[in-house]
């Protein structure tokens, strides 16, 4: 297994630049998730690692070897595609054997051994004689993973592998992928637009937007301390409320709906900031509360309620117990968990580090 | 359990069809059956006449059906011309054209579907241009060209003008473009170059198109009359349709019974293949990019 | 790095040209070169087998304008094309719509209409000579049976061309039908259901829903039909040799007569070029008038 290093990797089509200067190191046995909205350049980045796209500028090394210009089969990688890309005219077995026959000098027996082993791990031993048409979506997915496993590559690349599955199956396959990663010690680069997949699967996540890397870190870290307003709103559901405020030197924030003081730890605030509050960082106040607003919408989703409250021009979502959920139209008081909320520069959207 | 629950709706379905729908189905049958018979009538006449005696054909009193099944016309026809040689020539010519076309159109279609190169659009329009050109506008010049090559009255003369096919290239390119990009990506990761992708991924996936094109090509060239007629003048290189034409012009005048027997002989290989592979034949044909 | 990208791109282009090479060689020798040569021939006095060639300039084209027979032949060709192709497509469309239902024995019907396509044109031509025979031919027998007057068909300068047209419709409708049938299968059935709920009658559904939706295929069929219509050469050659009194002489046959019977390559080439212009003109006309109106379900 191996470390993958992307140094200033760029991609442009003619004059249009789709990936800007990506610097990213994927450590050995790490599960790195590239996440971002569609068109953010994450798939292009993955395809450059795979060798399916030329790298316009920059350097790529896998396990210390420069493979920037190497053809895909010489990079020691395997890939699982969104559509699975199984050869329709070959059985599952042939699908898994094909790459080994083409790229290795393994004997028939060794290939068979590898396929049986992978099939066992993936519970598809019974399906090996079937063609993709005769397999369900989940089964195809397993065969596609099997095809990557038998190659025993240094790096596994996944391009939105779960997006063609229904919600229930997706959940199960997520667990399955996690188990494979843990048990087999794989190095994985995984592309998704789904922040829940990113949060649950990644050892680390790399957020991308508009072809640029926004933040790289452990999922909870990215969740708690997003580097900018883009990351803040992309990760977490329902999304974080962003409340534009005026700040004075004493750390008191002024907003149409409220005024609140935050601990600054010595940081100087610009005059215009954005207060970022996650739904679980705000609660209904039994007293007057820090802020007052009117309930717009109240959704009971089983275990809890999501209540949208208007604060002046802005909206904030509150996660509350079902029993406490107010009715639409009610005036409510809100308390912010000021130790956890975060601030961003109004102009740049960059996070303000309050610890100095 | 499952077998029972699945069988039930199937058993009920026909009964559930409304009376109106069934009436409408029959109503269509009443129109279509006579029309189909009308369409079939020339073929029926061919077969019936081939079994009649010469006298019967011209006898207005004779019935629709032959009085007795008379198979003598068949050996008599075969004696008029060397049909065995014609048959072999037809197979060689049609087979060579098809084989050569499959190679040229596969390569060209792959280039147009999946490779980037300068002048791609211009070259593609040049290929399409060939589809538009009626062969009848250039047969004269092609005849002269072949004469300069010294190929007149040889089998290659009937093959070489048809080796490249703009139509086939176009059809196959459409099909190639429908192969998902991820499949060829997967093949590249599995260590395939362009030839590998073409052989292991593209060609197996476009089989219906290849079959449909094969049918069109074989039918066209198996039945071609004009070109072989122009470029051949001796029995040892002639093809079946020419043989048939010779029958019509035999000195004894229009010998319909033999002529029809000859027609049955020439037509039956294709018709037989058609009847046997009818489903596959039509499915392939309909499946193809001619939308 | 970008150097390598450039090299990869160059290799791809070289591979593409290598892939196109076999096709291009044959296209060049047997399609493009003959056209150029045919233009050159048309400007000269060329006799088949005679190495001596004289420059004529536009003389062959002037002769064409003065050639009464050419105009007759041209009119025959235009008449045949403009009547046969639309009629064959109409028949094909009706057959396709009828067969696009759950009719019993659908396979047999499809075979019954498609088989003429597979009969060699020479065989078809001869069979129809027999069917059209004035004395004993089954068609005249049928006319008598129906109480209609018998016709001289291929021996009548009035009926010979229509006779060939009729047989062409029989020969080609099945081919067009199959292509249209494939297109009909792709028309979403909920459109018909919606129209039926709106109380639209069957003929109106055909005109207002089916035809617009399959118009790309209809357009394709028209072009294919135009290109096929030149096979009339085979029928003329087998059935009438252009007669009686050039009533069935068409451009392709007239080219053959001039080139191979009179060995006048120069004039035959002039006619061939005229045919080429005529065909390309018709296709151009079709794409300008119909191509723009075509409704595309998909992208193409």
Rg of chain B to the nearest angstrom?
25 Å
- Distance between termini of chain A? 39 Å
**Major sheet characteristics of chain A:** 6 strands, mixed
Summed up, the helix count of chain A is: 8
Count of distinct structural domains of chain B: 2
Looking at the chains present, what oligomeric state does this protein adopt?
Answer: heterotrimer
Number of helices of chain B: 16
**Major sheet: arrangement of strands of chain A:** 6-7-8-3-9-10
Main pleated sheet of chain B:
none
Give the CATH level 1 class of the largest domain in chain A: Alpha Beta
Mean pLDDT of chain B, to the nearest integer, reads 82
Q: What is the number of E strands of chain A?
A: 21
General form of chain A: elongated
Helix and strand element order of chain B? HHHHHHHHHHHHHHHH
CATH superfamily of the largest domain in chain B: MetI-like
Work out the strand percent of chain B. Answer: under 5%
User: What fraction strand of chain A?
Assistant: 25-35%
Q: State the CATH architecture of the largest domain in chain B.
A: Orthogonal Bundle
Q: Write the H/E string of chain A, N to C.
A: EEEHEEEHHHEHEHEEHHEEEEEEEEEEE
- Largest protein interface, residues of each chain: B-C, 91 and 95 residues
């Amino acid at each position: 297994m191996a470390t993958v290093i992307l140094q200033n990797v760029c991609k442009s089509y003619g004059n249009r630049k789709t990936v800007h200067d990506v610097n990213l190191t994927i450590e050995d046995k790490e599960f790195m998730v590239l996440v971002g909205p569609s068109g953010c350049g994450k798939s292009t980045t993955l395809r450059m690692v795979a060798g399916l796209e030329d790298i316009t500028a920059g350097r790529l090394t896998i396990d210390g070897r420069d493979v920037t210009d190497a053809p895909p089969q010489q990079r020691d990688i395997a890939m699982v595609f969104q559509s699975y890309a199984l050869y329709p005219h070959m059985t599952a077995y042939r699908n898994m054997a094909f790459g080994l026959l083409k790229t290795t000098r393994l004997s028939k027996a060794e290939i068979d051994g590898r396929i049986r082993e992978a099939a066992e791990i993936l519970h598809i031993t019974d399906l090996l004689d079937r063609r993709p048409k005769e397999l369900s979506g989940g089964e195809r997915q397993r065969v596609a993973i099997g095809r990557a496993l038998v190659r025993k590559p240094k790096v596994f690349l996944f391009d939105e592998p779960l997006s063609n599955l229904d919600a229930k199956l997706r959940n199960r396959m997520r667990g399955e992928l996690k188990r494979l990663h843990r048990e087999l010690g794989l190095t994985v680069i995984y592309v998704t637009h789904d922040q829940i997949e990113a949060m649950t699967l990644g050892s680390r996540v790399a957020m991308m937007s508009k072809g640029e890397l926004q933040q790289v870190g452990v999922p909870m870290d990215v969740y708690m301390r997003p580097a900018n307003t883009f990351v803040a709103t992309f990760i977490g559901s329902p999304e974080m409320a962003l409340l534009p405020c005026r700040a004075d030197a004493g750390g008191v924030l002024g907003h149409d709906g409220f005024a609140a003081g935050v601990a600054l730890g010595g940081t100087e605030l610009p005059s215009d900031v954005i207060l970022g509050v996650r739904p679980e960082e705000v609660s209904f106040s039994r007293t007057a509360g820090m802020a007052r607003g009117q309930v717009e919408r109240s959704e009971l989703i089983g275990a809890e309620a999501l209540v949208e409250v208007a604060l002046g021009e802005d909206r904030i979502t509150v996660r509350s117990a079902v029993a406490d959920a107010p009715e639409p139209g009610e005036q409510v008081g809100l308390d912010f968990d000021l130790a956890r909320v975060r601030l961003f520069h109004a102009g740049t959207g960059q996070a303000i580090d309050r610890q100095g | 359990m499952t077998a029972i629950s699945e069988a039930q709706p199937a058993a009920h379905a026909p009964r559930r069809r409304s009376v109106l729908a069934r009436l409408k189905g029959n109503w269509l049958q009443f129109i279509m059956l006579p029309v189909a018979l009308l369409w079939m009538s020339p073929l029926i006449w061919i077969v019936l006449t081939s079994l009649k005696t010469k006298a019967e054909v011209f006898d207005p009193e004779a019935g629709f059906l032959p009085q007795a099944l008379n198979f003598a016309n068949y050996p008599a026809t075969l004696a008029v011309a060397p049909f065995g040689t014609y048959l072999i020539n037809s197979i060689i010519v049609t087979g060579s054209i098809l084989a050569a076309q499959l190679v040229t159109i596969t390569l060209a279609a792959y280039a147009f579907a999946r490779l980037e190169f300068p002048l791609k659009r211009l070259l593609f329009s040049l290929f399409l241009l060939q589809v538009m050109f009626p062969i009848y506008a250039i047969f004269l010049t092609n005849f002269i060209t072949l004469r300069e090559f010294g190929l007149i009255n040889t089998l290659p003369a009937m093959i070489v003008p048809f080796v490249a096919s703009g139509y086939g290239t176009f059809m196959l390119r459409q099909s190639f473009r429908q192969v998902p990009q991820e499949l060829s990506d997967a093949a590249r990761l599995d260590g395939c170059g362009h030839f590998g992708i073409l052989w292991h991924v593209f060609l197996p996936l476009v089989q219906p198109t290849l079959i449909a094109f094969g049918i069109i090509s074989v039918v066209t060239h198996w039945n071609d009359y004009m070109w072989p007629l122009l470029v051949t003048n001796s029995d040892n290189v002639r093809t079946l349709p020419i043989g048939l034409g010779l029958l019509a012009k035999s000195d004894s005048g229009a010998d319909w019974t033999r002529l029809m027997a000859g027609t049955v002989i020439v037509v039956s290989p294709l018709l037989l293949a058609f009847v046997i592979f009818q489903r596959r034949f039509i499915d392939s044909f309909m499946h193809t990019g001619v939308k | 790095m970008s150097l390598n990208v450039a090299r990869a791109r160059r290799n791809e282009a070289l591979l593409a040209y290598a892939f196109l090479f076999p096709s291009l060689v044959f296209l060049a020798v047997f399609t493009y070169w003959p056209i150029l040569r045919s233009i050159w021939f048309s400007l000269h006095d060329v006799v088949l087998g005679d190495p001596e060639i004289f420059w004529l300039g536009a003389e062959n084209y002037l002769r064409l304008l003065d050639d009464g027979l050419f105009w007759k032949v041209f009119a025959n060709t235009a008449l045949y094309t403009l009547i046969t192709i639309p009629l064959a497509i109409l028949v094909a469309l009706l057959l396709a719509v009828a067969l696009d239902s759950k009719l019993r024995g659908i396979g047999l019907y499809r075979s019954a209409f498609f088989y003429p396509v597979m009969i060699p044109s020479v065989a078809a031509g001869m069979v129809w000579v027999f069917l059209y025979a004035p004395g004993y031919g089954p068609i005249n027998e049928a006319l008598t049976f129906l109480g209609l007057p018998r016709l001289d068909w291929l021996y009548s300068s009035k009926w010979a061309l229509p006779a060939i047209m009729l047989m062409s419709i029989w020969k080609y409708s099945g081919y067009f039908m199959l292509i249209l049938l494939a297109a009909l299968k792709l028309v979403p059935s909920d459109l018909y259901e919606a129209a039926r709920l709106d109380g639209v009658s069957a003929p109106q559904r055909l005109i207002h829903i089916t035809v617009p939706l399959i118009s790309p295929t209809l357009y394709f069929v028209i072009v294919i039909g135009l290109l096929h219509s030149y096979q009339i050469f085979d029928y003329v050659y087998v059935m009438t040799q252009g007669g009686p009194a050039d009533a069935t002489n068409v451009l392709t046959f007239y080219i053959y007569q001039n080139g191979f019977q009179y060995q006048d390559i120069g004039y035959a080439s002039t006619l061939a070029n005229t045919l080429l212009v005529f065909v390309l003109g018709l296709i151009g006309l079709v794409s300008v008038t119909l191509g723009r109106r075509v409704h595309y379900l998909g992208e193409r």
